């Protein structure tokens, strides 16, 4: 044990001397070049500050490790926001981050005349240090002429420090900051919309309340919008560890998109995009999701008139039966889309019937109609399905039978209430 401590001392002292050497070397090599006496006296002081700031906890995006003695306290604090608050509080609001851009991106030139932006940040009971670090990173790493304002939308936080103290603090920052308070807890989307309504910039940028922007984050986003004002852009999103606050570069070989439950997911960049970009990874990836020919579509809940229950995929997988369950109004497994291709779709699975009298199973959507074709009759509220191999096989989606109360069935169309399904548009974020 003592030997170990001894080793550490030796290591630390030698490390210190190496650092002193490096410092001296830098000092003299720099000052050989500069004749100006003023700079001679100014530079070392400046560099001392800078090197200190690069060494503080979490600087350059490094991990912050909590000493053994504080582990208990750390675990307590972790529960407050579900991240390592102790580590976060140790890191400077303006901590430095590595420049993780591809080499080709660092030298890219963007037009001068970019549109300016309002940055909207929604928070609910956010930690002081993560919120402030988000704000500082926006201010410090965005050209100010492009920053119209920062709008903080407080989704009914209960913590006192997010009230008057926050208002007082942000008054002194170099960019106009507006704070909007929701009267009651409203959820991310409503809060964002409120922020958007109050924004003055030409572009609205939505950020999470615990993120950090890196150098050059904003210009490429605005440049794409300047090229085509109808695009919605998204940067590569890297990861900050919830445990150590280490900054970890993400992959540029994935892109964000929405699945059919409108949940955000990462998808691998398709070959078609690799080809289009001819290997130049500094070009943006175009997401295909939006341009699919599935618009217009309804995001619906299918509610059976007789049982008042909703179609529900029950979290089941491909090749399993679709279910039916009490409507919970939370979206999730009960969100189905009736697409322009006349499919009843849940995520990437479609309701598929290949035999008379069912069953109704979920299979990968093939867009070939056939077994996945459903005619919705908006007046009778019925879902008619034709099995192509059979003559006179028109059947309708019906309530469950006595044998299994959890799966809808297929029966000859009768216009009975059990075959009537109401479609309800779902409000996003509700
Ligand atoms: C952060 O701000 C402090 C105080 O103004 C300053 O000393 C330090 O150099 C800054 N750090 C970075 C990485 O800019
Ligand atoms: C943003 O751009 C618009 C249009 O050019 C301009 O009127 C407005 O003053 C700009 N806002 C800021 C804060 O620069
Ligand atoms: C759902 O919204 C779409 C698009 O706005 C509209 O055409 C449709 O009639 C609505 N359907 C229902 C059931 O409210």
UniProtKB/TrEMBL annotation:
PANTHER family from the UniProt entry: N-ACETYLGALACTOSAMINYLTRANSFERASE, POLYPEPTIDE N-ACETYLGALACTOSAMINYLTRANSFERASE 13
Matching InterPro entries: Glyco_trans_2-like, Nucleotide-diphossugar_trans, Ricin_B-like_lectins, Ricin_B_lectin
Gene Ontology molecular-function annotations: carbohydrate binding; polypeptide N-acetylgalactosaminyltransferase activity
Family stated for the protein in its record: Belongs to the glycosyltransferase 2 family. GalNAc-T subfamily.
Domain of life where this protein originates: Eukaryota
Keyword Manganese on entry: yes
SMART domains: RICIN
Annotated metabolic or biological route of this protein: Protein modification; protein glycosylation
Coiled coil location: none
Lipid bilayer topology: Single-pass type II membrane protein
Gene Ontology terms: cellular component: Golgi membrane
Keyword Transmembrane helix annotated: yes
Protein name: Polypeptide N-acetylgalactosaminyltransferase
Gene3D superfamilies, alphabetized: 2.80.10.50, Spore Coat Polysaccharide Biosynthesis Protein SpsA, Chain A
Alphabetically ordered keywords of this record: Disulfide bond, Glycosyltransferase, Golgi apparatus, Lectin, Manganese, Membrane, Transferase, Transmembrane, Transmembrane helix
